[in-house]
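quick one, 520 residues, struct below
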Amino acid sequence: MDEGHATSLAPGVAWLRAPAFGRGALGEGRGRLGAVTLPAVAFVVGALVLAALFSASPTVTFAGGLGGDGFLYAQWIRAYRGDVQDIGLHAYSAQRVIAIVVVRTILDLAHAEPTNEAIIRVFRVLDAACIIAALGFTCLSTRFLGLTRAGFLVAIFATYFNYAFLSFLPFDPVLTDSMAVLASACAGWLYLARRPVALACTTIVASFVWPGFGYAGIAMLLLPRAPAGPRAATPDATPHMADHALAALAAAALTVAAAGHAADPVKYEMQPTSMSLLRLSLGLLAVLGFAALRDLVRVGHLARELARLDRDALVGKALAIVVYGAVSWGIAWVSARAAEKVEQHLNLGARDVIGAVLARAVQRPLVFVWAHASYFGPVVPMLVLAWRGACAEARRVGAGVWAVLGLAFVLGLNAESRGLFTAIPIVAPLAVLSAARWPWTPRRLLELGAIFLGASKLWYSVVQQPTLDWSTYFAHFGPWMSNGAVLVHAIATLAVLGWMLWLRGQSPPAGERIALATTP
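---
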């Protein structure tokens, strides 16, 4: 690019380089009013876009518009009589009871009968409100990451501008997914803002919105952020022999366990696969697992964080114990008596959930990568390429965020991408932060925006029909994808990976480079 063109871009480049929130060192300090203009405008514009999408989107037609899981939720809502115990939920479904209570309470306050139409209407409004609120918490969270204005915009796009938020949630509204997103975004902000009591309360409530959320909340309580101060150097940047050994052992264990669970595809509702493809999947899982865990596992750092005895650490540990006890007791209490009026599905234990995660990881070669990339968009290939940096940034920001990143890796082995809703609001900004040193320019940012737009429409043909073709829908979804859909999603993902690899190797003029973070 010639010098004149570079000069004409200088004002825009200078604006993009400025901190999104006044100061950059993990965002400590309030900054001036002008410094928060961009996040405020982004929140208002994003809220309007999301509200419009949720009000105008076509919806699922199965079960009268309730969808598969929603049909069961409607049964629970109709059975509700004011006593939580009388809902009749087993231990797994009890962890979604908050949604049932909230929806039925709204219907009662409005003196409305719990018809399908009324239930769907309330869920659609709740979904839109939850995602808009989550967007607000993410805007607040980015303040602690030291992002520039360019980095802030990329982080918001990476988190919310994808098929999952723009298409799936409006399309199938009678679910608790949007509440899980809100809980994750809120918990992430509370962790970064060092508000452990509020984080503990959020974890308890969220544990009855989305199964397993308590693990993420307890991890953030056990591993609180270090006392406020300047951004320090990355701890334990170089892995030790023990880290490599543990990573290899864990990758081998995951592979062996996946092989055992994949032997029973019917139990985990998977399509049978050939032995040759299964062996290839297992080999790729072993390689990818070791590569990811090698950069993630830091035994010494984890031991030091767990052994901390400062005030923040002691408060966090005490609250973690309280949360664990409250959630365990609450689940047992809610599921103590099953109402005879409500037909109960088979109870799902932790072994069943873990088995499904591992079995679906190897159903077809790297199917979970292609599924997540089409569901959550270009942030997934960005995270793959910048994984080492993301692990380092997570440890630097806080060991609790680092633990959530590890949990996201395990959950991400499941090709059913919905399981990552509780991690994406925390993990996506980390992916952007780890890609901050790439040679970004205004043109490259525009290209990335175009890729986000294209990725968000990848599944649009599935939901634009006047009536739902259920087989077509599942042929594009996670572990149930057809071979053709796997191929399409893999090609799209590899194309984005190729573009990002090309981008990393560019050397634009210094005047055009735009860092996504204000700290080196």
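Confidence is low (pLDDT under 50) at residues 1-9, 23-35, 229-234, 462-467.
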